[in-house]
Amino acid sequence: MIEAGIIGGAGYTAGELIRILLNHPEVHLNFVFSTSQPGKPLSSIHQDLIGETEIKFTDKINSEADVIFLCLGHGNSKKFLAENQFSEKTKIVDLSTDFRQKSEDHDFVYGLPELNKDHIKKANFIGNPGCFATAITLAILPLAKNSILKDEVHVNAVTGATGAGTSLSETTHFSWRDNNFSAYKSFEHQHLHEIGQSLKQLQADHEAAINFIPNRGNFSRGIHATAYTKFSADLGEARKLYQEFYNDAAFTFVTEEELHLKQVVNTNKCLMRLQKFGDNLLITSVMDNLLKGASGQAVQNMNLMFGLEEKMGLNLKASYF
Question: Domains, the chain, ranges and CATH?
């Protein structure tokens, strides 16, 4: 069995990881580290786990664990790893922004399986992609693969309240969020850096802008993204490019059906639909921000790193009604 540990166990992504790993046939959840909740049952925070596990939060780490998932706030993963040592065999999956950008300062591989599966299989350290970055990058990667992403891409995407984490702020209180809708960080969202990095990996000459407007939705979870750009060929050719690119993808699918969030929430899927309007190709991309956008993708990466079947432990079903 793979001995797994979670660092930063009280947040939304940690909760999803706990649920997945408790039911993963090849994993034993060894410990869940939390400086704010030591000694308390996991179910005191993640209350759906009542009756599911007797594990308690701890402020001690097992440095010999086979895999560590870092579910810390952005900027804290680097600090934690500098202050805590793990064995040479320990693999690490970081869910923050700390190691997503390529750098000579670290050996982390960007963990988007549809782009880097072969590298992930050989990696010891993974920088798990951001949620918006996953939805948007997957929507336009096939165009970059074929070196036809020449014009600006216009993206409008909406995320649920869980995308902001558990810490309360002015824009996460129920009274503000309910029956409300707003844009934020227009053209400046931090995920743009990793999107650009991935596109250049397949199309080195890509320079056109990704004009991204992120929005806050008044629902709990999910991302609904629409992206459009110039595309000279017909819709049939576009579908062919996308189907070929995602032919062996475990969780990314192209469909002709109209898309909405209930098709993907509580699953590790990313679904895409292509439409052609004049000389514009419109790509709709939907997924669960906490699963394919965070914890589900982290386990998908773990499976690849340990030579397991990619879908193992991730047979999650949408709650359609």
Answer: 2-128+294-305 (3.40.50.720), 131-287 (3.30.360.10)
Calculate the alpha carbon distances from 97 to 139, 163, 165, 170, 239 in Å: 21, 14, 14, 23, 32
Which entry of 29, 45, 131, 136 is annotated as an active-site residue?
A: 131
Closest listed residue to residue 280, CA positions, set 229, 212, 242, 222? 229
pLDDT in tens, 83-96: 999 999 999 999 99
Q: How far apart are CA 77 and CA 210, in angstroms?
A: 28
Q: pLDDT at position 110, please?
A: 97
Amino acid at 143: L
Radius of gyration in angstroms for the set of CA atoms belonging to the chain, rounded to a whole number: 19
Half-sphere exposure of 53 (CA within 13 A, CB side): 25
Catalytic, 270? Answer no
Query: Which has the closest alpha carbon to 159: 207, 111, 222?
Result: 222
Tokens at 285, concatenated: 């991309």
